[in-house]
Fold these 2 entries.
Entry 1:
Amino acid sequence: METDRPDGRTPNQLRPLACSCSILHRAHGSASWAQGETKVLAAVYGPKAGTKKNENPEKASIEVIWKPKTGQIGKLEKEYEMILKRTLESICIRTIYPNTTTSVIVQVVHDDGALLPCAINAACTALVDAGIPLKHLAVAICCSVTDSGCIILDPTKEEEEKMKAYINLVFPNTIVSVLPERSSQVGSEPMAHGIMTSVTQGAMSVDDYLHCLDRGRAASARLSEFVRKNIGPKSTWLGRMGFLCR
Amino acid sequence: MEEEKEAVMVTPGEVLGRTSDVKAGRGAYAALHNNTVYASLTGFRHTVPPAPDSSDLRPTVEVTGHKAHGPVPQPGSVVIARVTKVMARSASADIMCVGPKSVREKFTGIIRQQDVRATEIDKVDMHLSFHPGDIVRALVLSLGDARAYFLSTAKNELGVVSAESIAGATMVPVSWTEMQCPLTGQIEQRKVAKAAS
């Protein structure tokens, strides 16, 4: 089921991606991530000494501060902070430096839809840039369901407002092996079919949800490829890519 | 076993080997649920052969060439700290270096009275051991409480390595418990670190 989109993209096509690292000199790690007109800047400071009152001092803690483009932080931003915190805690190896706090500051530069996935991708890239040990990378994607039941990826703000529901999905990066046999499996276990975070807005059927998962997973494989190609032991990098996920 | 000639770029989560074949070094971690070693940093895969006298014959796989975050004090690491406050039963210090690397963030340490020296620990006078501004070499004992790490100077090679006299000159150690001002000749009490020979 095809649908026309205002910007001429197909339902499975992502907006052009742009990413650059180490753009803030005072931060220990930083990254800017843009998906079309949506752009987010993330900065990482730490590990710093001590944890907050309600945190477990036997593990490192992650602190997320969300800075909206304009105005005060509201309920939605608080929710985004919490989602981002939980997502980042699940990818960081928190037992290495107990009783420390790593601060992640997310600054929204422009919001043109799929803001949370963009922020998650930026924060994850900034953590890599800061040299924080991670279990794996996280790649986030937004899928939305139209009134006619068509699923589209990476909606713009205009599209989001017309959708009956949309879902923000975070997947672990598709794990590759650098072993000589280049096996995609370890033992008999498939490598990465997990889902780390799923945040739904609006109502959708179970079938729609499962279709979104499939589409999201396909897109996340391409995003993983983009991230892997572009992040490296360099001080700065810039990548641009537009995707059509089959 | 020779080191790898070709550097392979890896990102966090990439498989570096099986725990039966390799050990996880810096920038890598072992997942116990599937006995696999994964990368935890972005950099180049690097295999270090085992030491000739080692009983474990597995090579160590590391990820090198990455941008490292600032060093973090850990139990057992030797730190350089500046004393900020001296009280009757403890002294506070700001950790400046962990091993050879300077810290990016402020870490606070506490030297308790019982951790100043190894002998006669109940007779230690904190004010005769440290003064604010002294640079000390200390060992991290533990994470301590939420506010500070517990530090110890209870070894010959640990203690004050640099101190200023009242006259403002850098003092010279004359014994394990005394330092002398080169300008005035005045002797001040300190828990002096034994100079490396």
Entry 2:
Amino acid sequence: MIPAPFDYVRPDSLAGAVAALAEAGEDAKVLAGGQSLLPLLRMRLAYPEVLVDLGGIAELRGVRDDGDFLWIGAATTHYEVLHSSLVREHCALLARATATVADPAVRHRGTIGGSLAHADPAGDLPAVALVLDARMAVSGPDGVRELAAADFFVDYLTTAMDDGEVLTGLRVPKVWAGWGFHYEKFARTAQSWAVVGVAAAVRERDGAVAEARIGLTNMGAVPVRARAAESAAAGAGLAAGPLRAAAEQADAEAAPPSDLHAQADYRRHLARVLTGRALAAAASG
Amino acid sequence: MTATPDAAERVPEIGRARRRKEDARLLTGRTRWTDNLDPAGVLHVAFVRSPLAHGAIRSVDVSGALARPGVVAAFSGADLAAEQGSLPCAWPVTADIVLPDHPPMAVEEVRYVGEAVACVVARDRYAAADALEAVEVDYEPLPAVVDMAAALAEGAPLVHADKGTNRSFVWPFESGDIAAAVDGAEVVLRRRYRQQRLIPAAMEPRAVVCAPEGEGFTLWSSTQVPHILRVMLAMVTGIPEHLIRVVAPDVGGGFGSKLQVTAEEVLALLLARRLDRPVKWTESRTEGFQTTHHGRDQVQDVTIAADRDGRLRGLKVDLLADMGAYLMLITPGIPILGAFMFPGIYKMDAYAFSCTGVFTTKVPTDAYRGAGRPEATFAIERIMDELAAELGMDPLELRRRNWIRHEEFPYTGVGGLTYDSGDYERATARAVELFGYEELRAEQARRREAGDPVQLGIGISTYTEMCGLAPSRVLGELSYAAGGWEHASVRMLPTGKVEVVTGSTPHGQGHATAWSQIVADRLGVPFEDVRVLSGDTQVGPRGMDTYGSRSLVVGGTAVVRACERVVDKARRLAAHLLEADVGDVEFTDGAFAVRGTPEPSVGIQAVALAAFAAHDLPEGVEPSLDSDAAFDPDNFSFPHGTHLCAVEVDTETGRVSVRSYVAVDDVGKVVNPLIVEGQVHGGLAQGIAQALYEEAVHDAEGNLLTSTMADYLLPSSADLPDFVTDRTETPATGNPLGAKGVGEAGTIASTPAVVNAVVDALRPYGVADVEMPCKPERVWRALWDAAARNGGAR
């Protein structure tokens, strides 16, 4: 469990990080909390020549009110997200999902930006970013750009960011007043990855679902929006029956993997069951 | 706390829930873990390991590694072939056992993924790890043999081509007329149970350091068995035994995985000799998962025969036991340790057992917590629940009709063992009360009636096990190469403090505390005045080490005997000092006095000083107050108990949650209830883990897919319920402590209790079994399969 040799730089500014990445070229990796990257290095599944550590860049850390949006710095730890009153007020779904990430030790080290940029479909936060319509802020040698979460995750462990770009944070629209949320995570042990996770947001009107949003964890190479189930849920009554009926379409857009922890058909079944539960919990919460 | 011999009422130490005196250093890590040891000039070893489950080695070229910075030496298996010998198997269970050579580093062929083929020795760990990729190994792939049934099939590829078979041995046992018992029975059930392969996963990885010292060598290893290791290192390498010192410093868990003589230990010794430098190796977690021996891995075909009223007639067990690629220290003996335990606590007319050991291209199996007895207990306790269901009888009632009643002890069962003591009625009654058995059955009925998607299941395990390993005579009869005795020395120092040297070597059991309690009571000295020394063959050259829940039963008894000899010697000296006849001198709470005349008296600590000064010793009494003793038990000891488990099964997802768990154990007399409680909790966690979480999975090519903790799921406290524990106490009769052993009981008892509960929850759906681990997908598929069989949706 000893990584191959690499160089290490720890810039103290975003500009410094972008410059360091530009200089290192394609064999560089960005290091945030290290909770995913370090195991890959130690098992020699990744061989970067340079690690650019974002840990010394104060501007990438913290949560702040940004007008119509909430700004969450990429290097903000899960623990900080979880305990942010702004997050709890404006996007409680993110707090709920973050509470299920790994264990306390990982949550103290791991960062929201690292988790999203790693783009592991078994990670809990990509599906949440999708449901919340988060905008991903990216800096690179050609300047700053913003990507919709839906455009950010392009494949397994792959984002739309170019080599040399750094995820600096995300902007979450503050449009969630009146919505209920739930993150339903199905994992084999408390510390293990989600076999399937469901992020649900429900807006209620007159005793029925006015609008629903559903994001699925680990149901494909990228996080999946379950749009068919969302449409089916719209207008449904809040009782378990109609919500479950809508959830029967939860896996319509998914292409789940078969692996050690579950075969694809079981994942599809779980997605349907868990979506029904997540919708019910979101509607009542 | 300072109970002096003169204090009015001495509180006995035995039975006190003392916190462990060793924990402060163990928990803070400020202690001698093997990996913390860095002798001056130490070199670091890393191993090139086979990526293939089976292959012929065409060539190994280490020259590239030698050119790497910091590298001091590199060797292939062929380079060391003349001196590395063959790793030992001390338990050839049959006369015609197929026992292949097992070179510490492969020379001609690799037979499991992770087998060492070359090593690099460098100035630091990083240089050694980096240089591994510069070693070039050319393999000719050979077919993997992963599955036992496939290994035994006609024309199967052979793990050891020169042996002509993948069958290592067949070991039979028969008692009573099994054919008559089965033929004459009204009900006969046949079941196949699978004991999945498990990975021991001790908290401290394996590590070894070896240093040339003077004319010999000192080898520190994270081992359970420093004494056995020393003997075996001498036998394997030819280095004379008296020139080898083995030290097990503090060891962070083993569960049987460190009851082994490993390739890395042998190679560390050879490398230290060749390079005349200290060398060190510590495994990574994945390296450990791939190469430290695994546990369990049996297929059990079980037949039980009974009358309609539930009376058992006979039991027949046919095992396939996966040996892996080689036979290690006691690999073939593990299923045999279970052979006598399949009948459990029940009376029956006949019992037949047969075990076939099978070679596969996987890492060898060997001892893992319980070692043979968990497998046996699982089979009997699972099939008892199945039989109860078949008979329409409450599973507790079926057990009551068949178990040995308390007044029948000592009882020689059909397995041939004589159970010395026990009270199954009492333990069961207490467990039923704590569990709320009737209330839970009522709730279960309500949920079934209501079609609740979350069903309740109740599982029972009325287990016994065999520990206190072991009478040397019996081990000899079973073809084991060593004995089962244990040794202890008790030394009273001139100032009255006490050193205890114990041959049994702890790796987390709390010997320092328990032995101090025993000695404090026996010598009448304060607990704090006792120090326990162990794990160093130079400090305590004699011992049989720690496994099989033997430490207290066998090693603790040796300590008691050594204390008795110290007291006997002190009595003679005290009589001399008191100018009394030895026969008139009594010893109470650390002081000697003449019978009937409490004054004057002399304390044992004063006697120790007199024995040291030796100014005035009676005829035939030698200076110094110390003694040695060894103890070899006449019989095993038999802890027992009743475990009751309630699970909730979410029939929509297949998830199983343990809702409540009651364990009432009878481990005989208890020295330290806190230590016992800890052993039970840890044992339950490990047994529940087998039932629900853990499984070593290989692909068809023999690759271990569960090679990290992300894939091999060890539950944490967050995944386990609060355990309700209690004890009953029927003292063991085979040792003066009355102790039965507790190190494995929780693991042995709990696995069938949990699986029985899972199946109990699902039986109305037509599910008769769920293979371990009962992971959600498997439970879900069992429900679907049952629904399909029943010809409709559930």
